[in-house]
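Example with several molecule types.
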Amino acid sequence: MTAMDRIEAVEADAPPRPSKPVQARTSLLPGLLTAIIVLLCITPFILVLAISFGQKIEGAGWVWSFTLENYRRFFVGANWPETSTTLYLQQLWFSLKYAIVASLLAVVTALPFTYLLTRLSRKAQARWLVFILASLSLSEVFVVMGWDIIFSANSGIPAIFRATGLTDWLKAVGWFDTLREWGLANPRNVKFKTSEFATVLTMSYLVWPYAVILLYPPLSRLDPSLTEAARTMGAGPWTVARTVILPSVRLPLVGSVLLLFVFLLGTYVAVTVFAAPAQHTTAISIYESVRGANLNAPFGAAQAVILLVTAAVFLGLGQTLTRRAEAR
Amino acid sequence: MTLRLLGHAFMALAAVVLALPIVVVSGAALNGGRTMLFPPQDPTLARFHEFFVSESVWTTALLNSVVVALGAAALAVLLAWPLAYLLWKTGSNLSKTLAALGSMPFALPPIVFGVGLGFFWAFLGGLGALWAGIVSHAALFLALPLVTISIGLQSIDRAHLDAAATMGATEGVTFRTIVLPQTIPYTVSGFFFALVLSFNEFIVMFFVSASAYSTVTLQIFNSLRNGYTPTMAVAAIAFIAVSVAVFLAVARWGDLPRLMGADQSRN
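Resulting structure tokens for the full complex:
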């Protein structure tokens, strides 16, 4: 997910390139590479776009067509104008909400951690990075498996609450009712399945290592003499953090939130396991349409296009905001 | 001083939270029964035997996982090398565009790329074939070796290249004697990054396998409706062990902080 950023960052401080003309022998290479990359990396996205205008045939799959039926269904429902539904818009709303909150939470907590990490010795950093990368590569099914146990009523946090008497204490001071209002408790004990809290927390955990990896390069390039200068001039640690460190990593910070947000739009397992069916997301609906019970590939493709457009809108918005902040 | 202590406490807390689900899953793998309890009830190692030896569902899936991950990582490196070299050598707009396009599948939500690949292989006739799964993962993870190899190429000392050119080395000789040896650690790192992520990926695999075969994570994903079982927790332990081993190797033989983009001038 960081590919281009990383390459550009590396390019920026690279020495001037060797400017030898590319030999005729190698001129076949660019053409071949272009063909392979367009075929493998771009065609699938183009197919999704093309099929989103297709038409479902009852009991026989779908055919090529040019209809806006699938998009209309997304915004107002299949039986419009007789009846209308905002079901799919609600799902998109939940996609956005989970992804925004989880990516913000991940970046805000990863920032101080990564800053501290970059101040360690090179060897200690390498050790931490092994740990971070191992948890980064951990499959979503395993992550959700772990949190599923942690949130479960029999052996997770609710069981600990009951065993330690925390539940009774919460009931005694009256906070239990507040938890029930938030949907984090049933009449007997606290519960996290299903809840938005568990969904967002797990999603945030899912991208937290990514946040560290994204913030690592800018923070480790931070010139320590800047913070030292500020300290010698009498600035307290919080002032240094606010006036020196934060402004210099503002752009990567916004960039990380955006990248993680786009990545989280596609979360599937965490949402199916931890979110109530009424609060499911567009990703789940795509799956249901393409391979699940509904079997309506064109509608699934249309939802995928809408998800991508949403991601693009937010990325564009983030870029304009940062550019405006730069100009000021 | 208190601030320093606070910093250490915060890092320790982060480590605990990061490790918590992993510890819990590892414990759950020891359960004697079919339910995931923690701490485990009636602890046994029978689930390990089931996963690695006796249950063919899991052994087949494990073999598929290994084949797909090795194949996809190798293919991704083979594709990434010429692209990274072109980018470094010419810096042309074409190579920059290609690098951006090649990174797109990894940056966008995998479910969208998965749906697209499902259609793609349905047209080309590869749907449900293992090789199509390998090619799909290679496309998805192309970005990783592309980044590591690019970092490796950028780290080559210009003086070496100039010396070679002065002594009359052709592009081929320079490539063999300077470029290739110096970038091998970065190539291997890229291979391992792609390997580990392919090993753990299941959404794209779900759409391109069309239920004809399954990898370990896909098998777990497919049986999610019936809930998790301790045998799946064994799979989790095995996968975490592989990741840790791979990244330890990368850290041992490569420069992990530099690969992750740390500043070179400070140590």
